[in-house]
Amino acid sequence: MIASSHESLLFLEEFERALREKILFLQHPHDLLLHATQYVIENPGKRIRPLLVFYTATALGADLKDILMPAMAIELIHTYSLIHDDLPCMDDDDMRRGKPTLHRMYNEGQAVLVGDLLLTYSFELLASSDLTPQKRLSLISILAQRSGGSGMILGQSMDLAMKGKTLSWNDLQELHLRKTGDLISAACEMGAIIADTSLEVQATMRQIGQYSGLAFQLVDDLLDKEHLSSQTLSSHALLDQALDLCQSLGLQDSCLTQFLPKLISRAF
Questions:
Q1: Architecture, CATH, for domain 5-265
Q2: By three-state DSSP, how is residue 107 classified?
Q3: Which of 84, 145, 188, 226 has its CA 20 to 30 A from that of 152?
Q4: Among the residues of the chain, which ranges form H helices?
Q5: pLDDT tens digits, 195-229
Q6: How far apart are CA 215 and CA 213, in angstroms?
Q7: Sequence-ordered list of residues with C-beta below 8 angstroms from that of 231, at least 6 positions apart, any chain
Q8: CA geometry: angle 176, 179, 183, nearest 5 deg
Q9: How confident is the model at residue 29, as a pLDDT?
Q10: CA distance 233 to 250
């Protein structure tokens, strides 16, 4: 099954509805936590990681009903990471997507707790999904690895430690691969797991995600700094490698292959 652009729009509509519904399940007499959580969830980004789960899973033959919970789980992880990134002890940002950051709207303590809530809730969603026990276990393992101390969190730690320093090309790539690439590669690999593919296909999708995630962040640097021509060349080369791997799986006509260039160039 190859998803059309219309189907991806329908997926996003269903995704937003299901996500709001899942957050409402958290309702508690202490409403401040719920309100703070709703504030950040209702200020959505472009849903890149859920879309990558969707495009990968549908390209490989999965059904929509099996995609929603994993797609929500990875978006909650991404959202928690942004909340913590914005804190004064990290990047100290006052605005996010045109609105005050969560710790500015509420306070630092509530922001930390909302991030913690989203982190733990993501794994609750995966554990309670209707997928087979083996798929649930695989998804939980992949998401924990890629977002944890050998993945995204490691990248965040490296970023803090390297602030103000001149990085070598290898250090820069390693930083981006961990901080950004690992969660993007998790989205692609999770899509392959949902579709019940072989370990070889899952490994290929992980590599596609790594190339795409690294290229995505290199272009982000270019937009911020408006230079570093070597990064332009590298991002194009990485995209080409990702697309070649898609072709090796017979996905050259899929929406995933159409989405990757748009993702890396921000043309969506």
A1: Orthogonal Bundle (1.10)
A2: coil
A3: 226
A4: 5-24, 31-41, 48-59, 68-86, 102-105, 108-127, 133-147, 152-162, 169-176, 182-194, 199-225, 229-248, 255-265
A5: 999 999 999 999 999 999 999 988 876 655 544 55
A6: 5
A7: 218, 219, 221, 222
A8: 110
A9: 63
A10: 26
Domain positions in the chain are 5-265
Pairwise CA distance, residues 17 & 28, whole Å: 20
Residue 152 CA: distances (Å) to CA of 34, 39, 88, 148: 26, 24, 19, 6
Phi, psi for residue 164 in degrees, rounded to 5: 80, 0
Q: What is the DSSP string of 150-195?
A: TTHHHHHHHHHHHTTSPPPHHHHHHHHIIIIIHHHHHHHHHHHHHT
pTM of the model: 0.93
CA 244/CA 132 separation, integer angstroms: 31
Both tokens of 166, joined, read: 């001149």
